[in-house]
Amino acid sequence: MKRAALVVVTLASVTKAALAQQPAPAPLPQPQPAQAPQPGAVPQTAPPVSDPMLESPKAAARNLRTWEDAMALVRARSTDLRIAVDDVVRAEGQSRVALAAALPSINGNVNGTYNILTKTGSQVCQVNGQPSLCPIDLPIRQSLDANVQLSQPVVNLRVWYNIGTANRVADASRLTLADAKRTITLNVANSIVGVFTAERVTELNRIGLRNALERLELSRRRQTFGSGNGLDVIRAQQDVESARASLVTSDESLRQSREALGLALGLTEAVGVTHDLDLDGLQKSAMSTCKNVGTVEDRADVAALSARAKIAERAHTEVKLQFVPTVTVTSSLATTSRDTGAAPSTTWNIQGLLNWNIWDGGARYGTLRDTDAQRDQADMRLEAQKRKASLEVTQAQRGVVVAEQARTVAESARNLASDVDRLTRVAFAEGRGTSLELITAATALRQAEVQLALREFELVRARLTATLATAVCSF
User: For 139, how many CA atoms within 13 A lie in the half-sphere containing its CB?
Assistant: First the structure.
């Protein structure tokens, strides 16, 4: 009788999962009234279980529905994007400053004077049409002077050359902005995949906990009816605690992944994703924002460093132009309320100024050495980034192949674990297995399910990385 009860309990637990995946059976004939249970009989179905940890995790306060929603939040909230945009604005402002140095400048000033200490003197004046000496306070007690000056550089090679340099700095800042957009896009896409992954792992761990609790309850009932022993119950309890530990870890990973997505979108709150956001179409959605440039040299970060290497070369040339003299033309218009009788109250003049810095103590030679070193550093940074970008592209493309192989291996391992679990349950039902083998097989299957889910999402992430490795994004 004990052996028969053992077979019944095991077969009930074996068939429960299979029946859950099969379509609903056809209606059966009206059953006959149940007979009274025999002494020592064990229930034929898995008992219902309840546990606070089986409840679904709390949904995030904000959820993404589409890729466009994510990009809208990035445009409005991303601090990295705003910093890169401000760098472009600053560079454009400096470009205008460089142009201003080559354009005319006009300065004007007005000066009012009141002298407290004076003495009486005389100056030549006209009295009845005749020159005469008139008394006057010296210095003149009060006066008002005004002056307007215009200055125009005529020959200044350094200023003209600096205009082109400033424009190239602005172009380099725009390339840096494009690379920042690519990096932000990849970060947001990976964060979305991370939330999907964490949610799937949490779901699998919660299913695993439910199955472990059902096995524990069956073990307890078997022990009650005399078909099991205390060792079976303890092993089932160990399996439950192991499932609880995995669930606690996966729940925290889910919370952290949602917080990471919120941070990537410029928010301080956790952000989840809805099932309306198609993970399979995430790559196509990302490519609607970005376009492939094809080569490493055309990638924004490499192109930006290439532009900065040219800027360093121009900075070296700019120092050499400091040895060339400059020519400036100025014109001044001045007027005063003081009447000295000797000079007109209003004057206007034009001046030409030749400035040649013949010796400055060797400062320009030191600057030449400095800019020459900066030029070499810029070239080395460009070369290092080319090598790094080339390796990133190679690894990203290889990563897709590796992720596909890993997924295939994980799927095969999951199938094998499923077969082992099924055969172990059959053997246990026939009395040829132990509870340790049963729980070990169930644990291995649970872990294989989680690993397969991880490999599937890693494949999506690898494809996104490979797609955006040589892309330029605009949004």
Answer: 8
Q: How far is CA 352 from the centre of its chain?
A: 56
Q: Each residue of 157-200: pLDDT tens digit?
A: 999 999 999 999 999 999 999 999 999 999 999 999 999 999 99
As a whole number of angstroms, the distance between CA 459 and CA 354 comes to: 69
Please give the CATH topology (third level) of the domain spanning 51-105+154-324+362-473: Outer membrane efflux proteins (OEP) (1.20.1600)
Q: Compute the residue count for the chain.
A: 475
What is the separation, in whole angstroms, between the first and last Cα of the chain? Answer: 73
- For β-strands 105-114 and 290-292, DSSP reports them as unpaired
Q: What is the DSSP letter of 59?
A: P
Q: pLDDT at position 448, please?
A: 96
381-394 b/e (C-beta count within 10 Å ≥ 16 → b) = ebeebbeebeebbe
Domain boundaries, the chain: 51-105+154-324+362-473
Backbone phi, psi, residue 210, to 5°: -60, -45
Q: Which of 105, 102, 86, 139 has its CA nearest to residue 336?
A: 139
